């Protein structure tokens, strides 16, 4: 198995991340650290030092920063394992978790496995369950996309919450859209659930995901945050030729509207020029949706969000909150 670990400005977290991988190491596991040209600390130097005690590990350094999607692709291109998994450089794993992952995917012989995870905010920890309730049984990934108005597996896009068979890569899946700075996992998870043949949801909780990290893009209100527009436009474009495009597009549009509303409601963290660009791109995205599509997407979304999206686009007086 190949474990791909993108790293950017996370020097202080490297010791815990590497130690957790030491506690998961096996002769048939390889660990690929992709250092994405950190600018604020000595992440690269820390990796070179600390990975000396992690067998079958390599540090690959980008010549220039490419973002999370590109860093993961670099790791994918270098990976030699039959299975691939991901870990963000500021997160960590429970001892023995990787062996459990391999056991599940080998036992069921599916294209991929998805897991629960533990969200860490300061000293607080909370278990976040994958939305699919059918556990430890092979499923058709398409059956976990709908319904439109409920949280489903395409709303749980975290690449690090699972393990993936190399045959997906051979079929043109698993790679991310190069250059995406945020929401890079949205087109990725949609592609998996539309095109893969089988998967299993396992009740494993060995990934510890940090929230509120200062260097995380979710905490930084800069223009990179606006890449979510490109991500969802890619989802919609790739749905166009799907045999169930009509049904699945409704789900994608609702997801898009939810994220647009979330970003608009938290636009206070952006500089004025970026907030203005956010509103401009939101109006354009909403304007590309038909009146009927928007009415269906926004039903039940809540008065505050519906009112804001109505106002940004205009001409949506009939939409129910």
From TrEMBL:
Coiled coil (residue ranges): none
UniProt-listed InterPro entries: Glyco_trans_2-like, Glycosyltransf_2, Nucleotide-diphossugar_trans
Domain Glycosyltransferase 2-like: 2-143
GO MF: transferase activity
Keywords: Transferase
Domain of life, per lineage: Bacteria
PANTHER family assigned: GLYCOSYLTRANSFERASE, GLYCOSYLTRANSFERASE 2-LIKE DOMAIN-CONTAINING PROTEIN
Official protein name in the record: Glycosyl transferase
Organism of origin: Streptomyces curacoi
């Amino acid at each position: 198995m190949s474990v791909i670990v993108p790293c950017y400005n996370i020097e202080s977290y490297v010791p815990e991340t590497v130690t957790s991988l030491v506690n998961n190491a096996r002769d048939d596991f390889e660990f690929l650290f992709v250092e994405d040209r950190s600018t604020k600390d000595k992440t690269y130097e820390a990796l070179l030092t600390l990975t000396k005690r992690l067998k079958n590990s390599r540090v690959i350094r980008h010549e220039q920063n490419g973002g999370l999607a590109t860093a993961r692709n670099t790791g994918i291109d270098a990976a030699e394992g039959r299975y691939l998994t991901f870990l963000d450089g500021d997160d960590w794993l429970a001892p023995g978790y990787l062996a459990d992952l391999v056991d599940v995917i080998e036992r069921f012989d599916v294209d991929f496995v998805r897991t629960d995870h533990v969200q860490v905010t300061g000293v607080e920890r909370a278990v976040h369950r994958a939305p699919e309730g059918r556990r430890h049984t092979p499923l058709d990934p398409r059956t976990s996309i709908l319904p439109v108005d409920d949280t489903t597996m395409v709303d749980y896009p975290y690449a690090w919450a699972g393990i993936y068979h190399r045959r997906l890569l051979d079929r043109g899946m698993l790679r991310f859209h190069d250059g995406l700075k945020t929401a890079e996992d949205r087109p990725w998870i949609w592609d998996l659930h539309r095109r893969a043949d089988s998967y299993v949801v396992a009740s494993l909780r060995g990934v510890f995901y940090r929230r509120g990290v200062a260097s995380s893009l979710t905490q930084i209100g800069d223009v990179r945050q606006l890449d979510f527009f490109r991500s969802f436009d890619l989802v919609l474009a790739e749905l166009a030729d799907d045999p169930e495009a009509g049904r699945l597009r409704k789900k994608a549009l609702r997801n898009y509207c939810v994220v647009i509303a979330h970003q608009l409601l938290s636009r206070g963290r952006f500089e004025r020029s970026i907030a203005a660009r956010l509103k401009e791109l939101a109006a354009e995205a909403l304007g590309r949706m038909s009146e009927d599509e928007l009415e269906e997407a926004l039903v039940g979304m809540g008065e505050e969000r519906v009112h804001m999206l109505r106002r940004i686009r205009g001409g949506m007086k009939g939409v129910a909150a």
